[in-house]
Specification:
Shape: elongated
Structural class: mainly alpha
Radius of gyration: 16 Å
Number of helices: 4
Largest sheet: none
Amino acid sequence: MSFRLILQPSMAIFFVTRDGLKDVRAGRPAYFWALFTEPAHRHELLQEGWKAVGRVFIFALLMDAISQFIVLRWFYPEEALIVAFILAFLPYLAMRGPVNRIARLWGYRATPAS
């Protein structure tokens, strides 16, 4: 069970780093900030975020289901959804903006449009 607590946030951080760097290259603002300050693009941003973290979320659900069957001999879907949300989606949402800002501080810049 503790392996899952390390693996899922690590995978989310990997994907958030990739997407945060893409944001910087595209010249977009920090993800979480843009969710609140750009209401016209909120739906697109949420879809993009879900697409990026969807695989991690599904993997978290599967890992939780397997661990529940091994440890509890039963499957609790509500618990699996909550754990997958906490271990996959929240780290993604919390870290995408800071990755964007740190990348800008370290010198990553938007690539000029050709």
